[in-house]
Design brief:
The protein is of the alpha+beta class. Helices cover 24% and strands 34% of the residues. The protein has two domains: 180 residues, no CATH class; 73 residues, Immunoglobulin-like, CATH 2.60.40.10. It is built from five helices and 17 strands. The strands form four sheets. Strands 1, 2, 3, 4, 9, 10 and 11 form a seven-stranded mixed beta sheet that branches. Strands 5, 6, 7 and 8 form a four-stranded antiparallel beta sheet that branches. It has a four-stranded mixed beta sheet with strand order 12-17-16-14, with no helix packed on it. β16 and β17 form a beta hairpin. α2 crosses α3. The chain is elongated, with a radius of gyration of 33 Å.
């Protein structure tokens, strides 16, 4: 795979733990779209205020989740990636590392959104907490999120206690929904990743073109490489909403050996005189040497042959030397003549 011009800069690291509060805090910074903090003056206005506030919060969470491959917190393992055309960074999860898949299923995406809502929704109910005779248990707020084909819906449950002659406790439930292609983008990302496992580190361009025709999504890929690995960052873009979905595949680069080993010229040794011969071979990685001779044993690390010929060994002997690395193997045949 050829390394393309890198439009985004990235720094590799492995995130040790999921710190949701940091992730959603950055989301608020990236996507500030909450409604005015001016409180409502009636119950109808209170309901409308809460609903709009929750919808804006869910919308921002969906955008962050999409840019981070389905996560609102810190995915692990992940790549810190600078969004193209901006100075904002997101955490792009690895869906593949050297053939091993880490694809989150839909339940994980929904759980991530639920956690984000549970953390960020309480401010939307701040006005309700000041109503006399009403106690709102914001710490027990719960969210249930469902990702549908063209939207994300959420049910927000808030325990409320009404204090009076007969104190009652009930659940206030608000239903919200935001339009989004998150479901389709996640499915396409899964298809790209599962298909990649069949092609190893080779990108199937025809497969990507076919997916673009089937879904109308734009699919971009950018490569980042160094001496140890290369990474392909995929960005899916919905041309209608402009929403993006990012994920990455990582492949380790195996060191190339390309063993260079010249032919072994005819050798001569004399009985009783120490014989020393260093086999010549070079590569970019360590080489392991071996032989098939009954006359001597080659040093496996240095490739040096040392022996003291005996009277019984007089004659012409053929032998084979093997130089081997993890990815390459080369053999050479030599001739050794022993004289008295």
């Amino acid at each position: 795979m050829n390394v393309q011009h890198l439009k985004g800069q990235a720094t590799l690291f492995i995130v040790l733990g999921v710190l949701l509060i940091i992730g959603v805090a950055s989301m608020v910074y990236f996507f500030p779209s909450s409604p005015s903090p001016i409180g409502p003056s009636s119950s109808d206005e209170t309901f409308l205020y809460q609903k709009l506030c929750l919808e804006d919060t869910l919308h921002s969470l969906v955008k962050l989740s999409s840019l981070q491959g389905g996560f609102t917190g810190f995915p692990s393992p992940a790549l810190q990636y600078t969004l193209l055309g901006s100075n904002r960074s997101v955490l792009v999860p690895y869906y593949i590392i050297d053939g091993e898949q880490f694809i989150p299923d839909q339940a994980i995406l929904e759980t991530e959104l639920e956690a984000g809502l549970s953390l960020l929704a309480p401010p939307c109910f701040s006005e309700s907490t000041t109503v006399e005779g009403v106690v709102v248990d914001l710490e027990s707020l719960a969210a249930h999120v469902t990702i549908q084909e063209d939207s994300v819906t959420a049910l927000i449950s808030i325990p409320i206690t009404i204090i009076g002659e007969d104190t009652t406790r009930k659940e206030e439930v608000l239903s919200i929904a935001v339009p989004t292609p998150l479901f389709t983008m996640h499915q396409v990302a899964r298809k790209i990743t599962t298909g990649q496992t069949r092609y190893g580190s080779v990108q199937c361009v025809d497969c990507l073109l076919q997916l673009m025709k089937e879904t109308s999504l734009l699919i971009e890929s950018h490569e980042i490489s160094n001496n140890q690995s290369f990474i392909v960052v995929y960005t899916l873009v919905d041309p209608v909403s402009g929403q993006g979905f990012a994920f990455a595949h990582k492949f380790s680069i195996q060191p190339t050996s390309d063993i260079i080993m010249p032919d072994i010229l005819p050798l001569t040794a004399r009985v009783g005189i120490p014989f020393h011969y260093p086999v010549q071979a070079t590569a970019g990685v360590p080489i392991r040497f071996s032989d098939d001779s009954g006359l001597f044993s080659i040093n496996g690390e240095t490739g040096t042959i040392d022996m003291i010929p005996t009277q019984e060994q007089i004659g012409i002997h053929l032998f084979t030397i093997t130089a081997e690395t993890q990815s390459d193997i080369v053999t050479r045949t030599g001739e050794l003549t022993i004289t008295s």
